[in-house]
Design brief:
The protein is an alpha/beta fold and 394 residues long. The protein is built from 17 helices and 16 strands. The chain has two domains: 2-196 and 374-390, Rossmann fold (3-Layer(aba) Sandwich), CATH 3.40.50; 209-370, Glycogen Phosphorylase B (Rossmann fold, 3-Layer(aba) Sandwich). The chain is globular.
């Protein structure tokens, strides 16, 4: 098979951890030897000179249109993005920018399928490209691309149209599958495709947690909570900070970057916990693993999720979770030994943390919750999905 895979979220020199899970999934599909994947990651930039002078876009503006990332070729065609304005136009803008390139690549060596790694804006863009090339297309739903963008007029209609016209769909959890079906899409063409995990990094460490904390650049004098995720309101780090105010013998490490950082720093100061909240920014996966292995509890009180990679990575390290009842939470956290599903409330979070700290579960028992997750399984399932869409001849 030859597949054009479209993903607006993909690692680059401007954001090395951005969409790392997409890269690893496509790498795992490549390893099967059954598919040639052409990776396209559209680069949305505002009109010049804003693309050069707005700090959020300065590094992105310097990205090459043809790139090598992680040893794989990545095409990064540019499309015009109007920050904060008319988001419903983005899918069409991507399709317009990509169509000449897609036609050229298809003429040189035909594609069999167009793959979209997210429902918005990738899905409707893939629909237009597939239509122009006369090819089937597939879309994957991950969470916010269904939960948030279907609330935006203009986006919702395009998402539903793309879902209905796609040859097949993927969802990261049974819950997300049900959410897609609720839009009026045939559930029979939706398959659950769970994330993978890098087990060379995210695994139960041989050393005790106290010893592991000694290697971290934060004091090892208290219990450690870790929250991994973009610093945006939807991820709910504010609830974790408010919970920390009720847990005097605990520190909180926030791993991630985002627009909410200043507000979270202010909240930490106002609640009197600023000395116990550590803003670590974006970290390489190896360092994230170090923190998760050393942590007593991982906390991620999201308003919405699909099936968060951070959940699986924490559990694989033997670290119990405190999460909200979002997305596939109940599909992952099947035992109270591995954590708690709580209300999005600081007192409920603090109470659950106290329970886990008072009666810690053996790390191997926690890790057993996710033994069936791997990138090898993820890649094989992705290739099998594409083959089903193409029929017996594939």
């Amino acid at each position: 098979m030859r597949v054009l895979s479209l993903s607006t979220l993909y690692p680059s020199a401007a954001a090395p951890n951005f969409g790392r899970f997409v890269e690893l999934s496509l790498n795992a599909a490549n390893v099967t030897g059954e598919v040639e994947i052409v990776r396209i990651s559209p680069n949305g930039l505002p009109p010049w000179p804003a693309s050069r002078f707005l700090s959020a876009y300065r590094e992105k503006a310097g990205l090459p249109r043809e790139d090598i990332w992680g040893g794989k070729a990545v095409l990064r065609p540019r499309f015009t993005l109007l920050p904060g304005m008319a988001p419903a136009r983005n899918a069409a803008a991507i399709a317009k920018a990509l169509l000449p390139l897609a036609h050229k690549l298809h003429a040189e060596k035909p594609f069999d399928l167009i793959d979209a790694q997210f429902f918005w804006p990738d899905g409707p863009a893939a629909m237009q490209i597939a239509g122009a090339l006369g090819l089937p297309f597939s879309i994957k739903a991950r969470g916010a691309d269904i939960h948030y963008w279907t609330t935006i007029s203009g986006c919702r209609e395009k998402i539903i149209e793309a879902a209905q016209k796609a040859a097949g769909l993927l969802a990261v959890s049974e819950t997300i599958k049900a959410d897609i079906a609720a839009l009026g899409v045939d559930a029979g063409k939706i398959s659950v495709h769970r994330t993978g995990i890098d087990r060379s990094l995210f695994t139960v460490a041989a050393k005790p947690r106290d010893e592991l904390r000694e290697r971290l650049p934060i004091p090892a004098d208290k219990s450690l909570l870790v929250s991994v995720g973009a610093l945006i309101p939807r991820k709910g780090q504010a609830f974790a900070i408010r919970a920390l105010a009720q847990l005097p013998d605990t520190r909180l490490a926030l791993i991630g970057a985002g627009e909410d950082r200043a507000a979270l720093e202010k909240l930490a100061h106002e609640t009197g916990v600023s000395e116990r909240v550590h803003f670590l920014g974006s970290l390489p996966h190896a360092e994230i693993a170090n923190y998760l292995q050393a942590a007593d509890v991982a906390v991620l009180p999201s308003a919405s999720e699909g099936l968060a990679n951070a959940w699986i990575e924490a559990l694989a390290c033997g670290t119990p979770l405190i999460i909200t009842d979002a997305g596939g939470a109940r599909e992952v956290l099947r035992s109270s030994d591995a954590g708690r599903i709580v209300e999005r409330d600081a007192s409920a979070i603090a109470a659950a943390i106290r329970e886990l700290l008072a009666s810690p579960t053996q790390r191997e028992v926690v890790a057993a919750q996710v033994t069936d997750y791997s990138w090898q399984a993820n890649g094989a399932a992705l290739v099998a999905h594409w083959r089903r869409l193409l029929g017996p001849a594939a």
